[in-house]
Amino acid sequence: MGQLFAIEIIYRGVFQKTLAKNICRGIVLAAHNEGKPGISFGRYSDSPERNGIPAKAFAIVATDDQTLEEGMAQYEPKQTDVTVALDDSLCKGLESWGWYGVHTVNEHLKPGATLIVASLEKPETLLKAIQATDRPYKLGVVRGVTSFSGMWVYKDDHTDVRILGAIAKALPSLMNLTSVEKYINGTLKN
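Above: the chain's sequence. Below: its structure in token form.
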């Protein structure tokens, strides 16, 4: 059996939907540049998705087709290699499904995995908001204001490519920076 990679993008419904979708799509296509199969999909907290309600998008990538199929058999990944919070206010926790209660932003991280937060705050400030866990993890901050790209009108402020670069740096066995650059030059410049 091969290796399975799971990436979770936590975003604000409607306002960051296109951004999250573009990041997940970029992960899968950059991994395809290395011959790895993958799929991206969303899970909405609310139907219909409402303004600002936390939602999640996922990218599942594997080193072979059989491992990918096994990973796709789950509704959503139980453990992630990288979790990305596109809004630093999500560090306080989120209630993405009304009946589940508040969950921590680092809940699904594998031990030693990485939490990436788009924020202007310093890591020390973010750590005060994130609930402590006994599982070790790394925290990466992609500096920038929270991107509210919208659902139909996409404000291209390059948050997507900065997040893709941060994921490649945090998890080079998933995709390397050369594959991300190839995806950007081949897909986004057109």
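Helices lie at 17-32, 65-72, 123-129, 159-170, 177-188.
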